[in-house]
Amino acid sequence: MKRQEAKAAAIVFDVRVTPPGTGHTSDAIEVLVQHRDSYCAEVFFPSIEERTTLSRQVFAQSCGAQILG
What whole-number distance in Å separates Cα of residue 56 and Cα of residue 47? Predict the structure, then answer.
């Protein structure tokens, strides 16, 4: 029998973050995503109520956190 293992994992957080180019913090939803080949990214979705012309875009960055063992 073949062992079933996760190929990817994601964790969702409610955070405060400073979107690029804004200079101010905003409420956001962060999704930490990791593939089993060690690719890891943090994707941020700024709160609709606090979106401005400069911060209305979703943004992401690579991360070092490891979800999968």
Answer: 9
Residue 6 lies in a domain: no
Full domain range(s) for residue 69: 30-69
Does residue 37 fall inside a structural domain? yes
Closest CA to 29 of 44, 18, 40: 44
Around Cβ 46, how many Cβ atoms within 10 Å? Answer: 20
For residue 24, being part of any structural domain is answered with no
- What would the mean pLDDT of 40-68 be, rounded to a whole number? 74
Q: How many domains does the chain have?
A: 1
Q: What is the pLDDT of residues 51-60, one digit of tens each?
A: 554 446 889 9
55 class by beta-carbon count within 10 Å (0-12 exposed, 13-18 middle, 19+ buried): buried
The pLDDT of residue 34 is above 60: yes
